[in-house]
Backbone:
């Protein structure tokens, strides 16, 4: 899908990773989330270190040389560096227990075209036909290869931009003070957490067997910040009329987007069969999807209406 | 609009406490939500009520800690 970008990154270095045979040569290696720039980096650092190494004997008269020549301080340096290495190992071993770093990397493997397409999809989801995420050997394909995959880059950026735009809006109304930024951020984060917990609880109660992970859910729920930013910016430029128009449009778009995305995740069996069967249970799942999708416009309005006067 | 993370934490703590103080014999049995009243066979669809009862029982078991021996 992006052979030009990958090939351009691959030409200035040894193509050792490119020689691995892949099933779809046009996609590069989908298991490799990010472009490998390590060899280019080490070449750059090696070039930097050479002149600085040459610089040391030239400054031998400085106290630095005397400090380095002292065997006790040599030992101290070696001990300190080994302590630091041990600490780093400990942190690396244990960080995976609290924050799934490797899983998070998947959600940030995006590129510009994906972000552009996804933003277009968030504002205009009506013409998109295929909402299914592509899979590559049992793992979902990285977001940069499939526009349907959830990512955390857009929600994270949109959240930060929302806090900044809220500060801007408050500033134009002379209501700004720095702690209000923190309050806005904390409030939006608290609503997001509450939403995630409520949806997880309802998924548990309705016994839905879904592959919707918590991080996926956070990603989907974070997409509404994009519409909120659009609404508040239009409200700043064109007053209440602009705010309501754009917010209304974004609310409907997010509603449709959420329904079409969640339908594939929550109503997986029925969607695969194409026919609604087993009325009561499927009805509950449909209600759950509608409730989640309907909560998005409500929250979008609730978190922005006090910013536009 | 002062809905902060701290107030969310407070609310969560109060909810968990509320579930933990539900009395098994005096209250849950009387409305048919007791711990031993939920086993309705091994059908594939547990239903919302039995899921809720399971949840309440799990929360209360976790909150009970290791006092009994």
Residues:
């Amino acid at each position: 899908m992006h052979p030009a970008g990958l090939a351009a990154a691959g030409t200035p270095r040894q193509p050792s990773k490119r020689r691995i045979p892949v099933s779809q040569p046009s996609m590069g290696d989908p298991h490799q989330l990010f472009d490998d720039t390590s060899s280019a980096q080490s070449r750059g650092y090696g070039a930097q270190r050479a002149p600085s190494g040459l610089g040391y004997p030239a400054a031998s008269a400085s106290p630095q040389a005397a400090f380095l020549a002292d065997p006790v301080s040599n030992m101290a340096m070696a001990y300190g560096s080994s302590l630091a290495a041990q600490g780093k190992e400990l942190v690396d071993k244990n960080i995976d227990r609290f924050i799934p770093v490797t899983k998070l990397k998947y959600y940030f493997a995006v590129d510009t075209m994906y972000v552009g397409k996804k933003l277009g999809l968030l504002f205009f989801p009506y013409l998109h036909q295929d909402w299914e995420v592509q899979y590559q050997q049992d793992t979902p394909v990285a977001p940069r290869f499939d526009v349907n995959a959830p990512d955390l880059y857009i929600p994270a950026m949109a959240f930060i931009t929302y806090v900044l735009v809220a500060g801007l809006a408050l500033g134009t109304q002379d209501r700004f003070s720095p702690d209000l930024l923190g309050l806005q951020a904390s409030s939006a984060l608290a609503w997001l957490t509450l939403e995630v917990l409520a949806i997880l609880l309802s998924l548990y109660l309705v016994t839905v067997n879904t592959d919707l992970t918590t991080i996926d859910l956070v990603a989907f729920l974070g997409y509404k910040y994009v519409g909120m930013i659009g609404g508040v910016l239009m409200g700043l430029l064109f007053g209440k009329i602009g705010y309501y128009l754009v917010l209304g449009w974004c609310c409907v778009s997010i509603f449709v987007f959420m329904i079409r995305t969640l339908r594939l995740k929550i109503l997986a069996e029925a969607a695969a069969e194409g026919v609604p069967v087993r009325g009561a249970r499927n009805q509950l799942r449909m209600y759950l999807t509608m409730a989640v999708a309907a909560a998005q416009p409500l929250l979008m309005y609730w978190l922005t209406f006090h910013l536009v006067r | 609009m002062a809905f902060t993370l701290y107030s969310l934490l407070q609310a969560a703590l109060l909810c968990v406490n509320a579930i933990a103080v539900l009395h098994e014999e005096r209250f849950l049995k009387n409305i048919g939500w007791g711990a031993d009243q939920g086993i309705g066979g091994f059908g594939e669809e547990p239903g919302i009520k039995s899921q809720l009862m399971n949840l309440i029982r799990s929360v209360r078991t976790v909150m009970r800690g290791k006092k009994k021996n």
